[in-house]
């Protein structure tokens, strides 16, 4: 039997590295005051479909033995963490403190065709700020800062965050005389996937747009800067609308707030639209410069009324999500992540003989009591074989019980040094 495609399955050393990533992401989220929540893997289908996502991606839940139940499936595995968040906020509204700052690190499921960067099961790491009536604009700038800090700590190199504002595109299209801008936004959002000519063709064939107007729609998507010059470049296109002005000012604010970061990390990219209809302001797409065809490794944006389907209150928010599995798997494949040992064990207690088993158990227990990760070899085989086991698993230290006139001893397998050690005080040396 073989593993089902689209589901990752790491070796122990890879899983250890992934857990270290998860710990670092969690610590960084919490350092900015975000609190952890976890929602069920299963949601009502009506809730999952409330935000216009395609039902083709949702795995529905039905019992294998339904005992005559012919009803349609009403439950599904969540395909992202944003819709469950909206339902969660609505359900627990009276118990939450606003602005509500939450992070959520969970697996999600999508019925996609597996390929590089696309999985049927994967980890997402989300942060969102939701508030009553309005969310201060500085949170729009804080989101990419947090992602930048996480990637810096994880050693992710050559990363760029592409930032835009949906109001810029929507206002620009309205200024061109286009009344229904949503279909245009959806097609323009495919620019990095099907290119200029592909988008131009779809605008004309699917929306019946004249070639000249289609070209003007794409003109704004060519603007991408690391400074504030995007404002004047948009003005030079000669299109005016109140919504365009508002979007440019909001994007200018965000880019100004990010100006302290290294040049070229944050880009005002006016081709970014994000296909989801609920985005209403700032939008983000994070990409790896060294792998331009790989797609986004983090994304998100601002939304005005994501909870509107669940509660009669105005609860806007802004959030961003790191596609952990996609990013981690790609960097593993490219050998950009240095995996460590095959085990978290720090010390292997050598098992000298069956008669001394209780003594070995006691030594291992004493070391664990002081916070060390300790393993005891299960059988009294030759010492050389036990040492080989420790070496193959990357265990750095082996512990020897007292023998004849010698006390406890420990050996560093990395340096080869061996000497006496006290069970009550010994600590591994700093790497």
Automatic annotation (TrEMBL):
Keywords: Aminoacyl-tRNA synthetase, ATP-binding, Cytoplasm, Ligase, Nucleotide-binding, Protein biosynthesis
CDD domains for this protein: HisRS-like_core (cd00773)
Catalysed reactions, as listed in the record: tRNA(His) + L-histidine + ATP = L-histidyl-tRNA(His) + AMP + diphosphate + H(+)
SUPFAM superfamilies according to UniProt: Class II aaRS ABD-related, Class II aaRS and biotin synthetases
InterPro entries reported in the protein's UniProt record: aa-tRNA-synth_II, aa-tRNA-synth_II/BPL/LPL, Anticodon-bd, Anticodon-bd_dom_sf, His-tRNA-ligase, HisRS-like_core, HisRS/HisZ
Annotated EC: 6.1.1.21
GO MF entries: ligase activity
Pfam families (UniProt xref): HGTP_anticodon, tRNA-synt_His
Residues in Aminoacyl-transfer RNA synthetases class-II family profile domain copies: 25-352
Similarity-based family: Belongs to the class-II aminoacyl-tRNA synthetase family.
NCBIfam families in the cross-refs: hisS
Protein name: Histidine--tRNA ligase
Species assigned in the record: Dictyobacter halimunensis
Classification lineage: Bacteria, Bacillati, Chloroflexota, Ktedonobacteria, Ktedonobacterales
